[in-house]
Design a protein that fits this description.
single chain; about 270 residues; alpha/beta; Rossmann fold; 7-stranded parallel beta sheet; about 45% helix; about 15% strand
Length: about 270
Amino acid sequence: MDNNNTLRRGESRVAIVTGAGRGIGRAIALALAARHWSVVINYHANAETAEATRQEAQAVGGQALCIQADVALAADRERLVVATLEQCGRIDLLVNNAGMAPRQRADMLDMSEESYDEVMAVNLKGPFFLTQRVAKAMIALLRRGTISEPKIVNIGSLSAYTSSTNRAQYCISKAGVAMMTALYADRLAEYGINVYEVRPGIIETDMTHSVKGKYDALIAGGVTPIRRWGQPDDVAKAVVAIADGALPFSTGEVINVDGGFHLRRL
């Protein structure tokens, strides 16, 4: 990172976006930056892509800071939150976007416990406990009058309710994210912290590149009423609407960004 990897404390609302170096997370970070948010770009391993996102975020009018942290690790989650509070003085929005597919798609009858544990740690355990830590910080900031109307957004997946037996651990993790959203929405409502799930469908990212041919055929065949690939910007627009307060009387809401897949047509 260069010496510009800092934020000017207290000048704007602050969002942590996990897994923001590429794909959906990158699009969310840039969309928030364009709305003049200060964005903490969390990344796991690829510092180069995170730095590229940071520079572009600043170019579109926001401030940005890169912080490396593996959300699956408790010490890293704590460091991410502490560093954000030290450098920014506030957290107004948490976007739990970081996630992974299994390293190898395998029939669930052959899935290893190691693969199950890895996916669940990144996709569910990490976001759950990061949300717990950030929620406590938000409550303290609300009581001090530092922030108002903070929000938490979980990036889910249509896999929360759609069976893919060659990546069962991913489906289970995303089903867990759906319940996690409901639980935190219930628990945090008394503090004025609204919690949402944005549920993408078939989105054109690195994660879906290896199965592009399969999804090209499904989309052409009408698996989604809107017959095109979703783009990371489609998801980012939904997050920005939430961040800007467009849904003040909603919490625990699931916002489908899936081309209509959830309609389950006959």
